[in-house]
Design goal:
The chain is mainly beta. Helix content is about 5%, strand content about 25%. The chain contains one helix and eight strands; from the N terminus they run ββββββββα. The chain has an eight-stranded antiparallel β-sheet with strand order 1-2-3-4-5-6-7-8. The longest helix has 6 residues.
Length: about 140
């Protein structure tokens, strides 16, 4: 079953598919990352983006960036229909895991969509695509 990821305002931004890789898709159907060992969030470009612990997505600084319906601090909104999933890119080698942060209750400085977009791969040599704020 897919897990929807909400931003700090309760808006659905992404979801974790129930496929073997646990691919993370933005709401528009773009694959941007995946879960590794059930807690590490990696971008398709190999970047370590954060941790998924206790139904909260934390960035690499230990700040809360995304939530499921069970952990969202505000009422969740029903979003528009999800777009059709684009085929996932071939994942790049994983970068080294950063130092384990102290998880806290501080909201992330960057929004959930911006954090996840940092993991997407372009068709131009594996560079990350420019980021557009969506939160």
């Amino acid at each position: 079953m897919e897990k929807i990821l909400y931003n700090e305002k309760g808006k659905p931004v992404a979801y974790i598919a129930s496929d073997y890789r646990r691919t993370i898709y933005l709401w528009d159907g773009l694959p941007v990352g995946y879960l590794y060992e059930e807690q590490h969030v990696y971008g398709a470009n190999g970047r370590h983006l954060g941790w998924f612990r206790d139904d909260i997505l934390y960035n690499n600084h230990g700040e809360m960036a995304g939530f499921t319906d069970l952990t969202c601090p505000v009422s969740i909104a029903k979003g528009p229909p999800k777009k059709k999933k684009a085929p996932p890119e071939e994942i790049r080698p994983r970068w080294k895991v950063p130092k384990f942060p102290k998880f806290g209750y501080k909201p992330a400085r960057k929004g959930l969509a911006e954090l996840l977009r940092a993991g997407q791969v372009s068709s131009e040599g594996g560079k990350a695509l420019p980021q557009a704020p969506e939160d």
